[in-house]
Automatic annotation (TrEMBL):
This is Ribosomal processing cysteine protease Prp. One of its GO terms (biological process) is proteolysis. GO terms for molecular function: peptidase activity. Keywords: Hydrolase, Protease, Ribosome biogenesis, Thiol protease. InterPro entries: Peptidase_Prp, Peptidase_Prp_sf. Belongs to the Prp family.
Length: 108
């Protein structure tokens, strides 16, 4: 089971925490690959903004942590789109794999 927690601040992603694995079929886990792709790309995309300050960690396999330390330094319109995309992608994965991915969203 993959557990993903999104923490929002004013409707924008402030922090992402993910831990766990989903079951694999023939050595491949589509849910793991999907979550990994969304989270890794989110971190890389936000990190491309010169003004962004992030704490991003993946200390061991199956774990991911991202904290946007300075969301006010990002363009609100741009970051709103990024946040909406991340949330929609994760919600779609949960819809497709409800027994393997759990998502919680909390406003800070």
């Amino acid at each position: 089971m993959i557990f993903v927690r999104l923490y929002l601040q004013d409707g924008l992603i402030k922090r992402i925490e993910s831990a766990g694995h989903a079951s694999a079929s023939e050595g491949v886990s589509i849910p793991c690959a999907g979550v990994s792709l969304v989270l890794r790309t989110a971190g890389r995309l936000i990190n491309k903004v010169p003004a962004a300050k992030l704490d991003v960690r993946a200390n061991k396999e199956g774990e991911f942590f991202l904290d946007v330390l300075s969301p006010e330094r990002l363009s609100r319109d741009w970051y709103s789109g990024v946040s909406s995309y991340i949330l929609q992608a994760l919600e779609d994965l949960v819809r497709d794999f409800p027994d393997q991915i759990k998502l919680s969203v909390e406003e800070l």
